[in-house]
Automatic annotation (TrEMBL):
GN (gene name): LOC107431171
Domain Disease resistance protein winged helix: 427-500
Species assigned in the record: Ziziphus jujuba
PANTHER family assigned to the protein according to its UniProt record, in alphabetical order: NB-ARC DOMAIN DISEASE RESISTANCE PROTEIN, PLANT BROAD-SPECTRUM MILDEW RESISTANCE PROTEIN RPW8
Domain called R13L1/DRL21-like LRR repeat region: residue spans: 684-808, 1051-1115
Name listed for the protein in its UniProt record: Disease resistance protein RGA3 isoform X2
């Protein structure tokens, strides 16, 4: 790493010399001497870096060199800031006299002191470097003149990207594990744990992924969950991770008990597979703490564990461990060959021979073969291959495996710039998901990227990321689409991370706050916080050379200004990141850290940025996005001449921009610009800025004239991808408003465009240039209430795939154009269309053609009472909120529909003839809030041979299913009925549902009996009966439902041979469970809740030998009889492995300081319900709960969103 540091110093020093800084400030000789010494040292650094692994004296010599280089870095950065300030004063001067004054200002007394101080510091550093340079002679280091350069790849090189499907030598391993999971695990009544063991880089994770994605496994398990464990086996963290993987939603911070219950609710009644990848934990108690929570699924539920440690496999495994062996030499060669030669049809025999010798040195390790294959991919000379084969690095002492020498080889034969950028990544914890943009900005802040020609430094950083990705140092984990450029998050394999740490050693540290360490040599630190208090001064004692400080957290915490004492001193800090903390002040930082270049305080409690931030002349990135309390930015921000990225998105209280933003000529990212009608805040401030990425321009009503708008030069910003144009009010004439928008023509590079609250009648003419806007893929129009038509040419945009329309009061047609004799109509490539609050919209096309909207697959309609639909040939998903009869009649023509949701009708007592029988491809049908719907036609489902899910909610007049409605419904797997207060009976054809697996009936108080023939439901696994529905669709509690009449379970339920999960909720008059309950011999989980009159369990429950979970909630009489060991009914259930008995009214109190606000809200609801209890959550209420949790953390926003807000998520 010393080579990387010294080369940066040399580049910066030579840059200052070229700018004649030394001549102006009288330190020319010192700077030239420093440059000469550094050049001498650089010549031997490459050899020294390799030999330090075997020679401790060289290692110590390099450490001394790095320490001096860090000091020189600060000196040169200070010189650079002074040079920049001098140039700024020169450019700001108007008259010749002022220019001269500015030029000679370095000779005033204040700057004379600076000259002497810098000269003395340079001399001291020069003397020390001279000693270090002389000391190199005794090591006899070899000079290396040729430097490796990072190059942008040509087309041939891009062909080397490896297809991850190419996995060699693991078919037998995969089939063995799959066979166990699919077949052998069925016989086990306990949770099966299958451990895969192997040394690092052997492909344990790859093998687990192959198993996880195997079709046989997917068919055999109801739910599959993947969790990366790594070294932190924290049971609470893992439970949250499992919940998040299963639900695909973030899990909010709850206490352990509610987390455990939530997870068990997700897993019970299901056969699940969990993969715990990369486990290191050897504490059996911790493992048992997790196993006891997840041991609640059906027979055959399994866990696959990957680990390097046999002890872990012995602790966790229930079957013999699967020892992963090395690859055969042939398989290892195939993997290496694919990486090294790609798809080349001809192989060079001489290179093949050398390559096979290199493969032998990999000793069957797949990661070593893959990494070295990537290294050799772009080496075409035989001597280059021989150099790798004969390298001394193969002879290093082995630690755990042969992998690190192979990785070191791949590292050492990379360009210096790439090496220093890769090594920096040691700052991140293992398994950390690294955001690409953030990483590039951190590299920039630490001067790790060299400027090349006219390329932007961010572009060079992107090329470095691409190189690391292609060389297998990075693994892409999140992307927007296929291809590298759409990958925005990376991870590093554990062994690659080990390599980075091996290079950086103590310079990059990940520190747990409760395990403080000596950070005196640290340059880059991540602090992992918990919610406990700590001594900040002690933690940061003697870390004055710190370059990067990032704060992360295990759980919510608050860092207040007092927790960062003024005495803290970070004079060399380049990057500070405290996002998602509750930081309230950064004055301690801006007052002392003058070298700061990267400052991320997004999602914090900052209210006002200190004025001192404007003196950070080197600041490149400032991120205050989503600081909900931030009220204003400092007025003097135009002094931040190095600023390249200003992120202020989501600062809802921010009303004004600092003046003269246009002076920040280096600015590349400006997420929001708020126009104000005063000098320095006009939209023309954007004119000279070369902005990239996304830009939102707000308050366009403040633009005075079209000429001013034209000066913003949006059309010339060729790197913009996303543009939002919005008005807050419309006080000017429509003509002026239209001219302003006409002058804000976007650039051809634009992909996403959103126009909000435009007050004109006509959209601009630039939409007609479909050839220019060939990149536009997503457009939204919101609140354009005066527009009668959408823009001319919109339907001809060749790449448009998504269109959003909301609040378009006067628009009658989406496509209003006449195409003459053209065979093709408009919107040929549109895939997603969302339309809300458009009361006069009549049709999609004024002149309908067969080809119109020919690719439309997803359509959401809300509050469009006049709209009818044409025949859409590709439509798959349709949602209608506010469904009129006329619109419903046209739905029957959509023969390709697979999912249909219709909601909100107060007129129809029955559906129109033919609905929905013609929708023969329909798989999911949802009917909500048809308040007068009384009858369903007997032939309603005839012809729906693909229908798998039927949901009916809040249809208060519906009394029953017709007798023959389910005849022929052989594919129906799920029926859900809720909040139908007059619903009395199911159909006698219910027995025909031979594929039915899930049945839920909630809030149907009149339902008392089930039809005969339920013994035909051979696939029914889950039955939920609830007397009350939990929530209305708007999220409020449904307390108006009459008391359910059910007093005993219907006799027909005893004939369900495959029933595994049964829940009985909320029947206040249920007094007795029948003896035939013992006939349900397949039952695994039985849940009884809120049946206060229920007194005892039948004796036959002892016959349920497969029952592994019994839950009893809010049944006080029954709870007393089922008390462990002493209850009268305990002997009946003593054989059940897991029995949970509790009453909501006697829940353990939860401390206020450890609660999040949403969970307290739920408890408050429970406490307020004196007359009627709350019953178990439905699959709908789970989503509502998650929505509430999200909104609890966005202060000053309403908790319950209106349906119209769906547009923002489309």
């Amino acid at each position: 790493m010393a080579e990387a540091v010294v080369t940066v110093m040399l580049e910066n020093l030579n840059s200052l010399i070229q700018k004649k800084f030394g001549l102006i400030w009288g330190v020319k000789k010192e700077m030239e001497k420093l440059s000469s010494i550094l050049l001498t040292i650089c010549a031997v650094l490459e050899d020294a870096e390799e030999r330090q692994l075997r020679d401790r004296a060289i290692k110590n010599w390099l450490q001394k060199l790095k320490d001096v280089a860090d000091e020189l870095d600060d000196i040169l950065d200070e010189c650079s800031m002074e040079a920049s300030l001098l140039e700024y004063k020169r450019q700001s001067s108007i008259s010749t006299q002022k220019v001269r004054a500015s030029f000679f200002s370095c000779f005033n007394p204040k700057n004379t002191l600076f000259r002497f101080r810098i000269a003395k510091q340079m001399k001291d550093v020069s003397d020390r470097l001279d000693e270090i340079a002389n000391e190199r002679m005794k090591f006899h280091l070899r000079e290396v003149v040729q430097e490796r350069h990072l190059q942008v790849r040509d087309k041939r090189q891009t062909g080397s990207i490896v297809n991850e499907k190419h996995v060699y030598g693991r078919d037998e391993d995969k089939d063995k594990i799959v066979e166990f999971l699919v077949d052998n695990s069925r016989s086990s009544k306990d949770l099966s744990v299958y451990p895969i063991v192997g040394m690092g880089g052997m492909g344990k994770t790859t093998l687990a992924q192959l198993v996880f994605n195997d079709e046989r496994v997917s068919r055999s398990f109801d739910i599959k969950i993947w969790v990366c464990v790594s070294e932190d086996f924290d049971v609470k963290r893992l439970i949250k991770a499992i919940i998040e993987s299963a639900s695909e939603n973030a899990c909010d911070a709850l206490d352990m008990d509610p987390l455990q219950k939530r997870l068990q609710k997700m897993l019970e009644r299901k056969k699940f597979l969990i993969v715990l990848d990369d486990v290191w934990n050897e504490d059996q108690e911790q493992w048992e703490g997790l196993r006891n929570v997840v041991a609640c699924g059906l027979n055959g539920s399994s866990i696959v564990v990957t680990t390097r440690l046999k002890k872990v496999a012995l602790i966790m495994g229930t079957v013999p461990m699967h020892q992963l062996s090395v690859l055969s030499e042939d398989d290892c060669w195939l993997l290496f060959k694919q990486r090294a030669f790609g798809n080349e049809s001809e192989e060079r025999p001489n290179l093949v021979k050398i390559g096979k010798e290199i493969v032998k040195k990999c000793k069957g390790n797949p990661l070593a073969a893959k990494t070295l294959g990537s290294l050799m991919r772009f080496k075409s000379e035989e001597n280059e291959w021989l150099f790798v084969m004969e390298s001394e690095l193969w002879n290093l002492p082995q630690e755990e495996t042969s992998i690190l020498p192979a990785l070191r080889l791949s590292y050492f034969y990379r360009p210096t710039e790439l090496r220093r950028c890769f090594a920096y990544c040691a700052i991140f914890p293992k398994d950390f998901e690294i955001e690409k943009e953030q990483l590039i900005h951190l590299w920039m802040a630490n001067d790790l990227i060299s400027v090349k020609g006219n390329m932007e430094v961010e572009e060079i950083g992107n090329e470095i990321c691409k190189e690391l990705y292609w060389r297998s140092f990075f693994e892409g984990v999140q992307s927007n689409n296929d291809g590298f450029d759409n990958i925005y998050r990376f991870k590093m394999h554990d062994l690659v991370h080990d390599l980075a740490q091996c290079i950086m050693k103590d310079q990059a540290r990940v520190v747990e706050i409760d395990c403080p360490v000596n950070l005196s040599r640290a340059r880059h630190v991540i602090f992992n916080y918990s919610d406990q208090s700590f001594d900040m001064l002690f933690a940061f004692h003697n870390v004055e050379s710190l370059r990067t400080l990032m704060l992360t957290r295990h759980c919510p915490f608050r860092i207040e200004a007092r927790k960062f004492p003024c005495r803290l001193y970070f004079p060399s800090l380049r990057a500070f990141d405290a996002k998602n903390s509750m930081l309230t002040s950064i004055s301690f930082l801006t007052n002392t850290s003058k070298h700061l270049r990267y400052l991320n305080i997004s999602h914090t409690y900052i209210r006002i940025l200190p004025k001192s931030i404007c003196f950070l002349q080197s600041l490149q990135t400032l991120d205050v996005s989503c600081c909900l309390n931030l009220q204003k930015l400092p007025k003097q921000m135009s002094r931040l001449r190095s600023l390249r990225h200003l992120h202020i998105f989501g600062c809802s209280l921010l009303r004004h921009m600092p003046p003269n933003i246009g002076k920040l000529t280096c600015l590349r990212t400006l997420s929001i610009f708020i126009v104000a009608g005063r000098r320095g805040n006009d939209v023309d401030e954007l004119g000279n800025l070369n902005l990239h990425g996304s830009l939102s321009i707000k308050n366009l009503e403040e633009v005075k004239s079209p000429m001013e708008a034209k000066k913003a030069n949006l059309a010339g910003k060729m790197n913009l991808k996303c543009l939002e144009l919005s008005w807050d009010r419309n006080e000017k004439s429509q003509v002026i408003i239209e001219q302003v928008l006409e002058s804000l023509e976007p650039p051809p590079s634009i992909k996403f465009l959103d126009i909000s609250n435009f007050g004109g009648r006509h959209f601009p003419q630039w939409f007609k240039n479909s050839a220019i806007y060939e990149n536009l893929v997503n457009i939204g129009f919101t609140g354009c209430k005066n527009c009668m038509e959408l823009p001319t040419g919109l339907g001809k945009l060749p790449s448009l795939t998504s269109l959003r329309l909301s609040g378009m009061d006067l628009v009658r047609y989406v496509d209003n154009e006449y195409y003459g004799g053209e065979l093709e109509g408009g919107f040929l490539h549109l895939q997603r269309l969302l339309i809300t609050d458009s009361p006069n919209l009549e049709r999609l096309s004024k002149e309908e053609r067969r080809t119109d909207f020919s690719c439309l697959s997803s359509l959401h309609i809300e509050k469009c009472p006049k709209l009818t639909l044409p025949c859409l040939r590709s439509i798959k998903e349709l949602t209608i909120w506010g469904c009129s009869e006329a619109l419903l009649r046209t739905v029957s023509n959509l023969h390709t529909l697979t999912s249909l949701e219709i909601c909100d009708n107060d007129d129809l007592a029955s559906f129109p003839d033919g609905f929905p029988q013609k929708l023969t491809t329909l798989q999911s049908l949802t009917i909500k809030r048809f308040s007068k719907l009384q009858d369903l036609q007997s032939d309603m489902l005839i012809g729906l041979s693909s229908l798998e899910s039927l949901t009916i909610t809040s249809c208060h007049m519906l009394e029953c299913f017709p007798v023959e409605i389910f005849r022929g419904s052989y594919s129906l797997k799920s029926i859900y009925v809720e909040d139908c207060i007059k619903f009395k009976s199911l159909s006698t054809s219910f027995g025909d549902l031979t594929a039915l697996e899930f049945l839920e009936l909630r809030g149907c108080p009149e339902l008392e009996a089930f039809p005969n023939g339920l013994n035909n439901l051979s696939c029914l696994k889950s039955l939920m009966l609830s007397g009350y529905s939990t929530y209305r669709d708007d999220g409020s509690q449904n307390l108006s439902v009459p008391h359910p009449k059910l007093t005993t379970l219907p006799e027909a339920l005893q004939h369900l041979p495959s029933l595994q999960h049964m829940s009985i909720w909320g029947f206040p008059n249920l007094e007795l469970l029948p003896d035939w309950l013992g006939n349900l011999t397949s039952l695994h989980l039985f849940d009884i809740s809120n049946c206060p009159k229920l007194e005892c369990l039948p004796t036959t429950i002892q016959d349920l030998t497969n029952l592994h979970t019994l839950e009893i909630r809010s049944c006080p009489k029954l709870a007393e009889r089922c008390e462990k060991e002493i209850g009268e009914d305990w002997h009946k259930i003593a054989h059940v492995p897991r029995v949970a008995v509790w009453d909501l009214s006697h829940q353990r109190p939860i401390q206020e300081e450890t609660m999040n606000c949403c969970f307290k809200l739920r408890l408050n609801y429970w406490r307020s319900l004196e007359k009627r209890p709350i019953y178990g959550p439905s699959h709908h209420s789970q989503n509502i709960h998650a929505h509430r949790l999200t909104n609890c953390f966005t202060s000053k926003e309403t908790v319950n969103k209106t349906p119209g807000d769906a547009a923002s998520a489309f």
